[in-house]
Batch of 4 targets.
Target 1
Amino acid sequence: MIRFVSRNCCLFLFFDPIIHKIYDYNNGMKDLLDLKLRTLVPAHESFTEDCARILRGLRLAARLGFSFSKDIESAIHKHASSILTLSAPRIMMEMNYMLSFGAAESSLRLLHRYHILEILLPFQAAYFSRQTTESGQHTMMLMKLFSHLDKFVSCDKPSAPSLWIGLLAFHQALLDKPQHPFVVLTFGSVFYHQSWEDGLMFARKYVQPLVNFDPETLDPYTPLSDDEVAEKVKKLAMRVIDSIDILVDADVLNNTMSKFPCSPCPGLVFISKNAAHGTAQLFHVLSHKVVPPSKGRSSFEMNHQLLGKGDPSETRFALGKIIMNTMGCGIDNQPALPESVHVTPPDSSLQKLNAKSSSSKKQNAATEKPIKEIADSDHAIEKPEEICVSKSPIQELMATLESIIEDEDLPSQLEGQNAKEKVNSPADVQVDQSITKEQSVDKKDKRKQVLQLSSLFK
């Protein structure tokens, strides 16, 4: 017997893999169909036992589009302050689940709606409050950044925490010192192309108007020389590094929040110094030397395996892509490189490419003639081997359900059935609604339900 049990959400389901039957004693399937989250025990009691369930419930609602019962909403408002009692690693884990798995924008909105953002990220909460109270504000740059992040990460292709930490610090730097839109575009383009020359050239050739955000960007009509852009990009990178301190140092946070006397600040920081240090290293390449090597990136396909491991090169590429798309560049619609281009080398910083550039050119010159001869002889060039991606939680759950032979004892409802009836039972899944009527589920619906169930346990 496999049990899908969650005390802080709507599920309390039992699955029998022998006769393909689901036992539902608390109307969990109905809650799934109604997209409703509720607790098995009263929400106030559940959140008193473990206030981390508040964050977990918000994460599930943001990721799956579920709504809360009135009981849960009331309990969240009452017990929100108890989150301060959680350890920093526990909060970091829950926040990473919210922001790295494809539901960052909706998670931030829910955190702000229930006044939890002002506990976890008070600087961003003050920004939210100011933007929503001012008239005519419809688009917030912070939300745009995270909405573009959500477009290429998901439950089975998450990013490392350094990506969303970098986005928070980058946005904080723009609030501290607004920049010319072209400087912001160039900043993202250099990260995306991983070459100063290619990044600046792309930004110069991009003739479409850029998105202007208030208060993050300045007057877009002031022309800038290449030297001015280089200096401003370098200073912006330094400000991003300084902004990371707000996320990890309580004293720096309190000092910064003193500029917002109307915004509460409990002084909580949950991002570790190791995570902050790794994020700062992403921007050091621009702050110490604004001109990265000229080799550039060899492939513009996202390597999700490297991104999930926090590879600096891949994380910079993702940051650049998010920033460019946020500025209205629409890099996803730009022409891609030929398929013969190889996969990006997983180096740890952009400077490493500089040492390899001279030897790479010699190697390309030596292999140019053989490649041409192969092409002339109409031989097919073998494509690079695809990177194997580990099974998603959904696939692992499906494999588990199919491979189980022995399990726990069945509920009392099954004790009267003999072994022959169990083996010869139809393969369709049935839902037993607690001694009421059984619902037959065909194979297609069964797969959809299992996908829904497995999504809740990530």
Target 2
Amino acid sequence: MQGLLLVPALLLLLTLPISRGRYNDDFDDGEDLAEFDDNDFAEFEDMSDDPATEAETIPPSRVFPSSQHIDDEDEDEATVELEDGQDGFEDSETQDQDIYSKYDQEEFEGIGDMEKTTHSMKDPLIIHTVPAHLQNSWESYYMEILMVTGLLAYIMNYIIGKNKNSRLAQAWFNSHRELLESNFALVGDDGTSKEAVSTGKLNQENEHIYNLWCSGRVCCEGMLIQLKFLKRQDLLNVLARMMRPACDQVQIKVTLNDEDMDTFVFAVGTKKAMARLQKEMQDLSEFCGDKPKSGAKYGLPDALAILSEMGEVTDGVMDNKMVHYITNHADKIESIHFSDQFSGPKVMQEEGQPLKLPETKKTLLFTFNVPGMGNTSPKDMDALLPLMNMVIYSIDKVKKLRLNREGKQKADRNRARVEENFLKQTHAQRQEAAQTRREEKKRAEKERIMNEEDPERQRRLEEAAQRREQKKIEKKQMKMKQIKVKAM
């Protein structure tokens, strides 16, 4: 029995190499094997009833238009032996039709669409132009170019403007240095050292402001000279001055000793400057209440006006030499301000009314316009030298000027009136401040009583507070009775 079973097993083993060789012979290369694997629907093929017509045929691979030359090579290499003795393949198109006719049409839906899509792939590509904002050209960086150009322009203007202001300041100092050193013992103290030392140079506050401090002269505590140039280092300011021109200025502030100036307030300058100073300055608004008057009486140009506390002061200040200085240099004079009550600009209402009179000093103020109306050259600084001579003359003039008896009494009455008006204005404020303090004191006393933990002690504190309030009321009633008795 076992021998009978071994015979079929041996026959099966012998047939395996033969079938494997046939498989390898049919697929000599990898391409044929791939084509065989692509035939996914071979198992659904309808076989004919006649077994003699069955042929060992392989379903043709799908033909793609993009790989036509590869298919041609496959057709040359692929050979199939037909049992019916056919010599070769039929036409490829007819063969495809015969094979596809054997399959179920529903299984191959979309094959025609695939062929259409493959044909559409042969259409030529249309290359569109790249948008302008994506192109790599200089036009794409116009914003960056403008920003860099503006930055370079600002830097260049800063350097040029700063250097020009420095040259103008040095030109002014060179032209006035001899005059200042002949009238002051100390010229150019920067205030860094404990002892006063004459540096002989200007002190730069910033790119357009230069200061010079002078002291060591009779009847004069000191003189501060401030050169206020235009902001030439600022490009925006330069563009603004094209629409609204301005000029450089020299401001001089002389502080006199208390015994070297009498009691008066006086100012002369352009009409526009006088109206502005009368509105802004504390002393001019209080002691020169009248409108600016014309200086034609003293031979001054029509463009200038005078503010004075009294007529006697105007007659004493405007002598022939002073009128000569002002008339010949009227285009350079902005304002001249003499005051023994100088305290600076007025205190604005939003800042609060002060409870005491501001501190005052006897001061001479001069404001001069530099020629050139912004287009100033270093040579224009020499034209300001006569005005510095006028400043020196004004110091000596004010020291010698003394009011008569009537003028002195009028000046004293004016100062008493200003002080009284100030006290009236601040009286209500002082009352409000006192009332606020009393209310805060009462609030603190009530909080102290409420925070007391002992009820008995709390009751005693409340009674003591009521007795104090009652005493205050009785005192006020007694004062009112006394006033009524005195009135009777």
Target 3
Amino acid sequence: MEATGTDEVEKIKSKFMSAWHNMKYSWVLKTKTYFSRNSPVFLLGKCYHFKTDESGELSTDGSNFDKINMEISGNVEEFRKDFISRIWLTYREEFPQIKGSALTTDCGWGCTLRTGQMLLAQGLMLHFLGRAWVWPDALDIDNSDSESWTAHTVKKLTASFEASLTAEREPKILSNHHQGTLKRNWDDNEKRNEVYHRKIISWFGDSPLAAFGLHQLIEYGKKSGKIAGDWYGPAVVAHILRKAVEEARDPELQGVTVYVAQDCTVYSSDVIDRQCSLMDSGKAATKAVIILVPVRLGGERTNMDYLEFVKGILSLEYCVGIIGGKPKQSYYFAGFQDDSLIYMDPHYCQSFVDVSIKDFPLESFHCPSPKKMSFKKMDPSCTIGFYCRTVQDFEKASEEITKMLKSSSKEKYPLFTFVKGHSRDYDFASSPLHEENDLFSEDEKKRLKRFSTEEFVLL
């Protein structure tokens, strides 16, 4: 009986924490983001121009469209549609209890896992849908709904408390557009794309069976000494994502692998070995690879000398974003304008969505408005991601990025390097592709512990 009472206290506590974080972060979602008309905007390799004869700024929520000509308006619309089409993964509450804990929310501690999920989701979107794909219903999301999110949060706080006292599940307060997407007449290709769109989101569902859901990521994190409720740094999350992809059993995912750079070095032969490894079915086929490179962009603060390199990386269509943030908050960086980074924020706590049901609502997995942050505010610890469909794509990318590293580096050594050969050729212990008894090798555990002590604490 005592344990039951403790669980109830934890549930009430977690509900108040969820409501508090929503009060804390909802104003960020409510705030409009302004973009300069005179500078290009880059989003994961795509460039958008909002330039007009007039100087000044414009908002991407559509409120200034009457002040600019139709050509520029169209470009803003295309940018909004592209941004909204990216998969947004945020704090959630009231999901199935995490094994080994009383937690039913990741509010307050899971932001880096969420930004890692967003990066992996973009890699999978490139793999299954291609960079040109946009969600047909992207502009149907009513951005003005964000205006009511603060009031919505107050209602949830009251509802949470009342539900806790009566031992009832918290009632859901959903806006009208969360009730479902309007059906449209789609051709076969659009239907196929929508199937993959939903499938990719379902892989990140907040349930124990979802391949890349929070529950599974936490299980892999335990192998590196992490438990639910701990903070996770960008490098640790990179290794967790690699294990999650390795262990995924969905046949659709057998054609994708993840490689994590060792000590800021990408060993080309190790990457190609992963791409050419056998499928679980025994078939020999080339796999696409998502390359994750944990780096530090300076000491205690980000070195501004790395700005041009980061902008160069986000200008590549095969870039899948950056797991980063500012001290105590993790963001998913996906683009830039001038010296400001464009990001998606995982800190808004939303209600659990059961992705196993047919036609589950998609709106809460797409962010209605981009946010911007000055590069100099960025925490130096981050993980950069790239997607390469073939070995030839990887070889081309390694050449292109190496040139970029050399041209942007004012230091004696570049931020990271590509070298030919295997890691074992340089006296590093190479981790096997599959380990039966332990998901992390001893060498990886040592690296993960070192990363854990070097990275910032995320709240």
Target 4
Amino acid sequence: MAREQLEVLSALDAAKTQWYHFTAIVIAGMGFFTDAYDLFCISLVTKLLGRVYYYRAGAPDPGSLPPNVAAAVNGVAFCGTLSGQLFFGWLGDRMGRKRVYGMTLMCMVLCSLASGLSFGSTPASVMATLCFFRFWLGFGIGGDYPLSATIMSEYANKKTRGAFIAAVFAMQGFGILTGGVVTLVVSAAFRAAFDAPAYQDGAVASTPPQADYVWRVILMFGAIPALLTYYWRMKMPETARYTALVAKNAKQAAADMSKVLQVDIADSKDPAPSDGDRNSFGLFSGEFLRRHGLHLLGTATCWFLLDIAFYSQNLFQKDIFTAIHWIPKAKTMSALEEVHRIARAQTLIALCGTVPGYWFTVFLIDRIGRFWIQLCGFFFMAVFMLGLAFPYHHWTTPGNHVGFVVLYGLTFFFANFGPNSTTFIVPAEIFPARFRSTCHGISAAAGKLGAIVGSFGFLYLAQNQDARLVDHGYKAGIGVRNSLFILAACNFLGMGFTFLAPESNGISLEELSGENDDETSAAPAHARTVPV
């Protein structure tokens, strides 16, 4: 690649932080706000779905989703997300980031609405319809991962790039928090309008018919923020790095960036491609494997291990809170009261642990660097999980749940001020422009594979070891305590794989990927896998 074509990219790297950068953060971030809301709000209403559709006459406890249905409802969106990450990641490198960006958002809007309109004459048909729409909802969400990260990394200057990408991802925290708040408001409104006794005082009356509207309203709300940003997403120009390096139109890249950024960019000639350009290797070539194979292994494996722990904890907070007696037993509450209490507990965790962790990353990542934040995040997640697991019987004793919640919240803090943020950021920085979206999609898909393992596996593993105390329809598992030991081990493994990806702090994207190099010798210095 001739150097004169990169003048527009040098100008972007040196550009001061401007209003358009913040506009791009909001436009891309609202997609992630919706992603997190849609993925995690299902955990707030699964208990309600069990009461509404799987009532068992004469049973001592309220109805609950059968194991296979619970696994499908919780995990099907992740299957769609994995597929979407691979497909839209690849498509973003073939068609351009902008052209694909609108497709993902409309898919999310339509499927959010459709999820709340799930229909059927039997419980099984309602759940099947819900799973169908949540799969395609996940498909759209999956596309947002590689595209949002890539677009933000390619717009940003090299000095504050990490903070900008982290700020986009930090909107996930507000999405999780908003899911809890919306559920609190909706459940409180329905409780005030339709008073109901506890299950033990009136099994049928404890779940009023109107409760069927509660989960539908909560799921459909996710379409609103995505719809509000659709117009602005369509107005964004294609990123200069895609236009210059992939479409090979430096003049158009300069013109596009001059419109939105206050930088003086001179027109550049579009040089003819060189037959000997060593940057023309393919994704499945030996050259890519030599230069970026370990990097891709590192980003994908770290994301896989992180999501096993992160999503298993997020999706099954309600079960953990019940185990430590922070939420009363289901039979002592009405259906709407149970939803309200679960939402209150998850909102508190999000407010005190999840959201602050994201913003610590935003403010510190360009000072500390990606490597140390990820390494320390994995380490402290493991430490606090072991702190929950070793004295687990102490934490489950009435009166000790406050200490459990504090340690539990700290695991989320260090997940977000740690690998949950950095695994999203690093793949958007270290790969060549023509593979950037694809490689980010591969890394993210590995993460969602971990989420599937965590969500399906934890559902069964966390069941009580005593067969008499397991949830209806389940077999005895290894218990929450032993599950926490497994999750801690995943974090320790994540520490090891962190060493495979290079530190990208303060380095231009072209230096990281080697696209600035004309020599045909060894890989660039920044491809080393030990931080400098």
